[in-house]
Amino acid sequence: MTPAHVHPSGPGPASLAAAATALSAVAVYLLAAARLRRRGDAWPPARDVCFAAGGAALAAAALVAPPGGPFTAHMARHLAVGMAAPLLLVLARPLTLALRLLRPGPVRRTLLAAAHSRPAGWLVCPPVAAVLDVGGLWLLYRTPLWAAVHGRPVLDAAVHLHVLAAGLLFTFAVCRLDPVRRRWGLLPRGAALLGAGAAHAVLAKSLWASPPPGTGFAPADLRTGARLMYYGGDLVEIALALVLAVQWYAAGGRALARGRRPSPAVRMSVRASGGYAKDTTREGVAQRSAGAGR
């Protein structure tokens, strides 16, 4: 039986390359944000912090050995790579930053065309993104896949890349902060989050009972890792729910403001009357007629 993915001699070349890629992406983002500000455009510093924290989480997952047994350490990396880092990176709105920084031209048109393409629209469809994310985890932990990739660095790197990409797609589909082809409403995004959260919790409970096929872990290590997956996943999903709640509140405020905005006919009446709104309803006309007769 395969005990775990343990690297006692330290991080290998693949881990070093992953960490260097993550930190390079952070440097590029921060330089782009600084250039945008020098140009006179506003860009909230909180987004810089989110992207830097997400990149640091990816680098730490590649380089640092978390405490605990091998399964607990693996699950800590899973939460960092597949859930926490994607949330931080998506909150930073990297696509919006790129589109605002790039000048009109072929590069910007290509990027915008890719974001508005039909395949991109399907990938960030909330139910599709949820299946790709949680379905991949079920395939990894409830089939012999994890045992099969052990000792094969290329396959192991491909699995971790899939976990990151699927986590980014799902988080992007739920938050929907950057411009894409279709903007799904709060209901389908909330339903996808609820369904994915339930499937993730059931998977964590199943790992509490039995390890992935073909692997062997100490019962205490297995249960600690499963507990970390369960409660750590809940924390990230609560954060995603808060993003949806903020968007719902903001949408309600915009709708209320639109409802209080005077109609074009009323605005024309205000301008015609020298700045005073004229009530054109039947009651308003009757009151003005009564006042004129006094």
From TrEMBL:
It comes from the Bacteria. The keyword Membrane applies. It is a multi-pass membrane protein. The keyword Cell inner membrane does not apply. Keywords: Cell membrane, Membrane, Transmembrane, Transmembrane helix. InterPro entries: Caa3_assmbl_CtaG-rel. It is found in: Cell membrane. The chain crosses the membrane at residues 12-34, 46-66, 78-99, 120-141, 153-174, 186-208, 228-251. Residues 270-294 are annotated as: Disordered. It holds the Pfam family Caa3_CtaG. This is Cytochrome c oxidase assembly protein. The lineage of its organism: Bacteria, Bacillati, Actinomycetota, Actinomycetes, Kitasatosporales.
